[in-house]
Design goal:
alpha/beta; Metallo-beta-lactamase, Chain A; 34% helix; globular
Amino acid sequence: MSGFAKTEFGPLKVIPGENGSRFPFSNTLFIDDDVKVVIDTGAGSKSMRDLKKKQRIDMVINTHYHFDHMAYNYLFDESKILINDREAECYRDRRRIGFLLGMVEVYGEKWVDAWLDRIANPDTEQTPYSPQNNHKWWLSSARVDGEYSWGDTLDFGRTKAHVIGAPGHSEGFCCMYFPDLGVVYVADFDLTAFGPWYGGTDGDIDLFIESCKNIEKLDAKYFITGHEIGILEKDDFKIGLGNYLRRIEKRDSLILSKLSEPLTLEALADMGLIYGKKFHEDAWVAMWNYLMTKKNLQRLVRNGEVKLVDNEYQKQ
């Protein structure tokens, strides 16, 4: 089974994101228990406002700091906001977002200061392919009231969520596992056609693969993705995960195919092998393309297929 034929698992309800849960929207979980909880607020303004009108929301939990999972935190002004302890600093000092997401590495610290000025202004012109200048960054990263850690069990009454640390997508990324319900929210292990995303400075291909394989082993019947596909039974998730992770190998192969002669990282990134060149007018997409190209090149070097000589990559 896949999609949203089933959206409720006891006290846990899946709220599909707008536009088919495509980035920058994501699926949201609502837990209707003694403690009423929203996990990731990226479903969209209408659904989050409707939920708030109908329910008392005691707590908002973000699986990680990325925009599409926290964009509507600001609507829950009377709720306690929690995020993992590895990324909580992002909500205390937004410059930490600039470091983790890749801005400092690619554009430098002064660029982060300019970004902060842009997101503080609700009238800033938006970028075409990313939420780079979205004012919701400013609104929803303004407060954190508590932290949780990998390995914690969060108790909401009848419902218990085990926090499974799953680095690779982001530094503190985690999946929420509900063993009593046979459900795991895998968030951005989302099986989309684009493939794994490790585009921030804190992204890591090897950790991403390891984390996916660990999540696959969980004793759960249903796997809920943060984007697009929605809800899958375990066998479907396992098949989809294999195809999803093979996207990394396809990226490796594409990069290798361009190395008929030695090339710099900049030259390879400019080809748009991860994100097509037409999307590079958006500074964040260009940044993520650069960083993901870099990480795949580093993987090829580790695997002995490529070597770096005088700042140029060449086949071994």
